[in-house]
Design brief:
The structure holds 2 protein chains of 2 kinds.
Chain A lengths: L3 E3 L3 E4 L5 E7 L5 E8 L3 E8 L6 E2 L6 E7 L2 E6 L8 E8 L9 E2 L3 E5 L1
Parallel strand pairs in A: 2-11
Antiparallel strand pairs in A: 1-3, 3-8, 4-5, 4-9, 5-6, 7-8, 9-10, 9-11
Chain B lengths: L3 E4 L2 E5 L4 E7 L6 E7 L6 E7 L4 E4 L2 E6 L4 E6 L8 E9 L4 E4 L3 E6 L1
Parallel strand pairs in B: 2-11
Antiparallel strand pairs in B: 1-3, 3-8, 4-5, 4-9, 6-7, 7-8, 9-10, 9-11
């Protein structure tokens, strides 16, 4: 069974801090994704990666960056956290060279920026 | 840009009744349509998916239909049970952007 693990379930940070959200998958998946989930807006793609050291902007990349130094790990970075980045963040992974494959999600990190 | 519209946003049914959730997509090159169920406080879980070369797919009480001409697809749950209560998300893989686009979600409540 695919296991996608996010480092924290709950996180509280202050405005202006640099925040790191970590995600690890154990199924040797090529693709990894970061979404944020807000009520009434569904899941919106922030960044994704099809391979190590590769990254692509999603629909809402502003204020975020990512790092994929190893195949199993995909990190989301909030360079200078702001209150409008308070949200649920979901990491996902999938097989294959594109996202036309089932995505498997982690449990999510509920991030609050004060 | 590409988008997916999902309706209704909330749905309340009596146990044993059927529930239908509908989605429309804008990218005619979309070829993969998964449905996810998210229980309160838990991760989204894939419950069924369909590809564009198939018109209908069924798995026990759950079925999905796809109308490529009209660019819409639907989730059907029969004989609903209280444990079906959750938020359901549809999604469409955009062939133009290479991204999975999600609908806004439907909160389904099954009353015992």
């Amino acid at each position: 069974d695919v296991k996608v693990t996010q480092s924290s379930r709950y996180l509280v940070k202050r405005t202006g801090e640099k925040v790191f959200l970590e995600c690890v998958q154990d199924m040797d998946h090529e693709n990894m994704f970061w979404y944020r989930q807000d009520p009434g807006l569904g899941l919106r793609l922030i960044y994704f990666s099809y391979d190590v050291k590769m990254k692509e902007k999603g629909d809402i990349p502003e204020g975020y960056s990512v790092s994929r130094e190893k195949k199993e790990r995909f990190s989301l970075i909030l360079e200078s956290a702001s209150t409008n980045q308070t949200s649920m963040y979901l990491c996902a992974s999938s097989l294959g060279g594109n996202s036309n494959q089932p995505q498997h999600f982690g449990d999510g990190t509920r991030l609050s920026i004060l | 840009g590409e988008n997916v519209e999902q309706h209704p946003s909330t749905l309340s049914v009596q146990e044993g009744d059927s529930a239908v959730i509908k989605c429309t997509y804008s990218d005619s090159a979309s070829n993969y349509f998964p449905w996810y169920k998210q229980e309160l406080g838990k991760r989204p879980q894939l419950i069924i998916d369909i590809r564009s070369n198939v018109g209908e797919k069924k798995d026990q009480r759950i079925a999905v239909t796809l109308n490529k001409t009209a660019k819409h697809f639907s989730l059907h749950i029969t004989e609903t049970q209280p444990e079906d209560s959750a938020v359901y998300f549809c999604a469409a893989f955009s062939g133009n952007t290479g991204k999975l686009i999600f609908g806004q979600g439907t909160t389904l409540q099954v009353k015992p």
